[in-house]
Every structure is written in structure tokens, then in C-alpha cells.
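dude i think i finally got it to work??
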Amino acid sequence: MQSQDLSPRHAPSAAPGPADAEQAEATLAEHYPRLVRLAYLVLPPGLGRGRRVLTAHALAQRALPRGRKRPSPIPAQGGGREDDPGYAFLRERVLRTALAAARPRRGLPRLAQLPPPLPQVWGLRLFPRSGGADELALDQRLSTLSGPARAAYVLRGLEQLSDPDIRKLLKAAGVSDPGGALASANSVPAHPGLLSSPEFDPCTLQARPTELLRRRQHTKAALAAAAALAVCAALVALPGGGWGPDGAAAPVYAGNPAAEAALDPGRLTRVSPAAWKTADRTDFSVWPARGPLTGDQALLRRALAVWARPGRSVRVSATPGTPSGGPAGPPQLLYAGEVDAARVVLLYDGLRIARYAEPKDGTQGAALDFARVDGATGPGASALVLGRSDGNVRYLTAPWVTKAAQRDLVKPDSAAVPLPLADGVTGPLASPALQSGGCASWTVLQLTDASGTHLGTDLGELVPARLTAGRPGAARDASGARGLRTWAPFACSLAAERSAGVRSVNAWAYAEQPLPDGTGSAAWVCTRAETWRGEGTTALAQFRAPGGAAGAVVAKGADVPACGARDPRVLAGVLWKSAGGNWYLLAAGSKDTASIEATGGVTASGPGPLLVARAEQGARAELKGVSADGREISGLG
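look at this
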């Protein structure tokens, strides 16, 4: 799966959304390290690293609203953590107080202007781990900036906000000249990776004594040692030789009853093995818990804890548009067992599938993957990826699946090869998501249940993408002979849809066009990939000349209705060279196309859904069609 992205994208939008105290508290627990790092970077470097650490923790902890009242409205967010209004509220409060601390007030020494640091630490100096020359140079450059300029630099590099969003946030935090702050921040070269380094991490600390040699009483020394133990347990990430109770999870910074209930393995939802037989819907909610480790409470606790608080050693990935926050309540257990070299847990919270994997040998490091599955039912909820290794993939299939097989989509006439099924787990099959180089084959998963036979392909995510064929709105499973022949020349084009959150891909042979040199007819196929999140759809117009082993993508549309159920019309063109060396513009539309017109590098027009015109090599043309009902059809791509 993809590696973890440590840089959240919080882009404020215009819609307000309030956050209550419990929400803010749960958000603080989840994003505490990020908020403390933000405060640490904005505070004046002249305070010293130890003072900045304690003050940053104080500012983050004091960002919580007092009492149970709902705070004033704050900007809502869009996508992932951006959907959490509590995070936007806390970030603004932390930024406001950090800027206030960085703004000197007349008549008071700088230390007197800061809030008393919490937690109090006696007898110890706490400071982040030292970085390299690059981190030191960046810290020195930041020390020359004003507080607002440092905030602008950090919001751009750490939070990845756009300049307009930074201006709004700085203005909300009380900065009088956000534009000037951004201009000053431009004087420091961008180093977003350095901002995420241990040099600027006030939650991963080193502890050193201060005046231990001057203390005369053993009681004071004992108190200092106790304080050291408390601080190290709460703030310092110590390397371990095995799994603790929470595994690779980050430390707990604040408690919340609902969040704690979601982390209790004893409260996991477990569905009866026969529930799917009488359910109204065949979806993930009726999958029973399977696998030999469903009773391993320690494993389940680690999986839940890492889901709620992934530590720095956890590789986190999520399909586009999938929130990666912790579960709102106890999720449903789908699987717990050993898969190849890992222990794997699959969980479902009604919206997402979460896959937790840890090495069987007990070494540190874990993986946490998320995928949206809202609205999945029937064939769309028939399989989940358990693991990938050595170029192969294993699936966990739905309880209603009776047979599993693999087939090569490039070879439509070859027979499917049966796959063993043991408690719903398939044997290994080649994963096209892991292949590199040329594409000579494309192995897909074939599942059979009471409703028929369905095809799915691994595109590098937890849920295989369903493959269908036919006119949009009337497409069927691609497992039939006609669907397999339609897909065969265009199977390798599926590589363009890897890791894009694809739910299903349909192939529609919308036209056949006789070639002008009399060598046969070319095939026009439109493949459309639908995503779980709705946006991000892609439509590819593909052309295949007679005798060609594979088709070629000649046009592409992103987030367009063409070739979809809402608007199945499609129009595309290609420059084609005949065997005699002549160049032609070939264009084809769906059957309801009444006429096609080409302008630009080629000027031609004609009735019907097909157009052929002589052209020069390298010519570029724009296509426009008119449907039988008089509506205009734009050329794809």
C-alpha cells in the first residue's frame, strides 16, 4: 500500500460548523502531536528549546473550551481531517495564543507574558532530539522572522494551506497584516519535510537533570525522579523490543468515554455466521468474524489503539476521500488471523474498512489502511484484500461466495483457474497492482454466488474494483464471453486507475468504424472508472485497429458525465496512418450521434456517428457532434 503522508491538508472553506467540548476533546487527543508542533514552531525561538516545549504543551492543552458550552462557529473543513470542525477550532486557538505569546507587551519581560507551562516539570530539562545542519539552519532562519511570518511559513509547509487560506486563518487569529506576514515568510526557502523532523517535535523529548548535584536532601531527589518518570511516560517515545498493550499506537493525551468504548476489544461487533441468509442487504454489515485470531484480545486491542492513535512507526494509507480518524464507536470485526508474514485484522465501521497489519516476528512497525465502502452491496461487497506479498494477493470473500477462481483478462478464451477457499480466504493469485514493466497479462478475481459470476481486479486498494461491460445504465458483469472479449484488448489500461479509489470500471464498445484503406474495421471502446467518493471519475476513449493486440487511449475526460449512466454519449477521434502511408482523422460517436464536425488542423464534417477525413501528420483538430435530439456533444479530451 501507499506510504504514510505525514502532512495533513487542512483547507478552510466558507461553511461554518460548530464544535462542542466533547468533540474538541476527542480531536485534541487525536491531533495533539500536530497541534503542539504547530505551537512550538510559532513560539519565539529566543525562549530556548526547553521553555518552548513546555509552553507549546500548555497552549495545546489550554485550547480546549471551558465547560460544556459550544464555542463560537468556526470554518468547516473539506476531506479527511478537514471534515472535523473541532480541529479547525483548536488550531485557531493554539495559533492565536502562540502568536500572543510571541507578541511582546510593554512593561513586561517576555517570560512574564507566557502562561505557566503545563505540565510542571521539576528537576528536569526537556528538549527535542537534535537534528542535523539543515534543521539548525532552518531554526535560525525562522528566528529572524516575526511571529505572524513564522506562523505563515508553518501553515504553508506543515499544514499545506494555500496563501488565501493562510490569510483567512491569520486574520482570524488576530494578525493585522496577513499579507505582510506571507511576504516575510517567502524570504525563507520552503522545507516542508524538515518541519516534520524530530528537531521540531515537542512530543518526542530528551530529559536531562538540572540542579541535582546541589540538592542536599534525598527527598527532593526522589521527587525529581518521580517527575522524570511521569514526564517520560507521557511525552517521550521510547524504542521497545516488542509490542506493548497498545502496540504501535501513539500515547494517550486525553480521555473520552465514547473514544475509550471504541477501543475496547470486548465491545467489538460480531455478526452471526448465518445473519447474511436472512438479511435484507448483502453488504459488509452481515459478514461474520472469521480467522483463527478472533479471540486474541491483545491483537485486537493493538489494532483498535493504532486505528485511534497511529504512532510515528505506523504506515498509514487511505483511498482518496477516505477519512483516517478513529472509529466513532465499537466497529465490526471481520477477520483476525495470520496472512503470510503478518498478523492482520479487518474492521468495519459502517463507512470504512480498516486493515491493521503487524509483523509476526514481533518487530516494531505496523500498517494501517483505509478504504471507503459506503453503499457497497452484492458484488461490490464480495471481497477484501487480506495481504499482498511476492507479487501475489490474497482475498477474504463474502460468506455468500461459493466459488473463487482467477483468469487472465487479456486472454478471453482461456479457462478460469479455480482458487482454494478456506474459511473465506482465497489462495494467492498474481496481483496486477504489483506488476511493473510491460503488460502481457492482467489477472483478475472471479467469484461465484447465487446471483451469478462477477469479476474484480486489484488496483492497489482494500476493495477490488468491479469490472462490467455494456452500455452505461445497462452494463452487466464482464464475466460473460462478450464482456471478456470487450475487455481483452483494453485490460492493461486499468493500470491508469491504480490507487485512485475506484469502485467499478465499465467497458463499452460504442462503435465500429470501417477503415479507409479497406483493411477492416477498427473498434472504439470507452472505459469509465467510478470512484467511491463520487468525484474523480475518469472516462477513456480507446481505439484498436484490426490485428492490434491492445487498444490505445486516444482521449481522456476527468469528472465528466460522458460514457456514464447520466450521459452515455461519447465522441472521440484519432490520427491514423494507413498501410499505404496516408494519414487520416478518424472520429466516432455513440449511435445517437447525428453529425460530427472537425475544426482546427482538420476541417471536415459529415452525417452520422462516424467521420473520416484526410489529414497531415501531427495535425490537431477539435471535434463537435450533434445528437439526434439536437443536443451538442463535445469531443472527449
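The chain has 13 helices and 29 strands.
im so relieved honestly
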